[in-house]
Write a structure and sequence with these properties.
Blueprint (H helix, E strand, L loop, with lengths): L1 H13 L1 H4 L12 E2 L5 E2 L6 E15 L4 E14 L7 E10 L10 E2 L6 E9 L6 H5 L5 E10 L4 H7 L11 E2 L17 E6 L10 E6 L3 E3 L1 H8 L35 E3 L2
Parallel strand pairs: 1-6, 2-13, 8-11, 8-12
Antiparallel strand pairs: 3-4, 3-9, 4-5, 5-7, 7-8, 10-11, 10-13
The structure holds 2,6-dihydroxybenzoic acid (GRE) and zinc ion (ZN).
The site of 2,6-dihydroxybenzoic acid (GRE) has 8 residues, from strand 7 and strand 8.
Length: about 270
């Protein structure tokens, strides 16, 4: 039964290329990061990130994840593979499994983590809006963090404590306290970087991925709060599929690396 469930779930992203041909392209994300095939690059440097007074205008249930939309404040992401172009934070969201041994989108030598957090930034130097950047090469930069189960994450609590109020698809709530997304970055700045895509439709090939090697910790209760969300609208009845409307397994499995190189920066 478990075999059948996994197959069904994995099949879903396989249908995307029908409606979004680029989903079958050669720079898709996520990928399996093979540590021994990564290329050290002396041209890479530490990621420069700063966030101040970040207010989340809306925390919503998209039916596929929770999403924190940034409303105000200032942010700046540059350096590393991004050079001098300045990227600003648009939103952050997460991908997770039903159980702790799977849920991340990127994998490392085949290893899955329990979840993966995405801080989505757009290139304000070259583009006028997030929408324009999202559809353009060099438009987006996403910081990816692996989540493991351990101690409670105080910044993540600002999100996880509100999830009971947005249990169903389409629901949204305001966050009154500011968040500091820098608190989601691991202490160690070692990262992998490569040219990839959005991991959900429309799967645009516009993302410079920066995936941190060191995982961050969240508590079992915080992950369980993610898993308690539902993928259907409040007025709909619970779908009778394998997941029974639980918002879990919302990760895309690894895509072919094709003609790409993953570079590594060692902190
Ligand atoms: C997603 O929907 O999961 C996503 C975005 C933008 C960038 C990366 C990403 O919406 O994974
Ligand atoms: Zn994502």
């Amino acid at each position: 039964a478990r075999e059948k469930t996994l197959k069904k779930i994995y099949n879903r992203p396989n249908t995307w290329a029908g409606m979004f041909p680029v989903a079958g392209g050669s720079r898709q994300s996520p990928i399996d990061i093979k540590e021994n095939s990564c290329k050290g690059d002396s041209g890479l440097a530490k990621i420069q990130v700063s966030y101040s007074n970040i207010q989340v205008s809306e925390l919503s249930n998209s039916g596929h994840s929770w999403k924190a939309q940034i409303g105000s404040g200032s942010s700046s992401l540059k350096g590393g593979p991004l050079g001098t172009d300045e990227y600003v934070l648009e939103q952050f969201h997460c991908h997770w499994g039903k159980v702790n041994d799977r849920g991340s989108e990127h994998t490392v030598d085949g290893k899955c983590y329990a979840a993966e957090l995405h801080l989505v930034h757009w290139n304000k130097t070259k583009f006028r809006s997030f929408a324009e950047a999202a559809a353009s090469d060099g438009g987006l930069a996403v910081l990816g963090m692996f989540l493991i189960v351990g101690k409670e994450h105080m910044e993540m609590n600002k999100v996880s404590k509100l999830l009971p109020f947005i249990q169903h698809k389409g629901q949204a709530i305001t966050l009154t306290e500011p968040v500091n997304p820098a608190a989601f970055l691991p202490k160690n700045g070692t990262y992998w970087t490569y040219a990839g895509s959005l991991t959900t439709p429309p799967c645009y090939e516009s993302v410079t991925w920066i995936v941190f090697k060191q995982p961050i910790q969240v508590s079992q209760a915080q992950l369980d709060a993610f898993r308690s969300m539902k993928s259907f609208h409040p007025c709909e009845s619970c779908p009778k599929d394998e997941l029974a409307g639980e918002l879990v397994e919302n990760y895309r499995p690894p895509c072919p690396l094709c003609n790409r190189v993953v570079r590594v920066y060692k902190d």
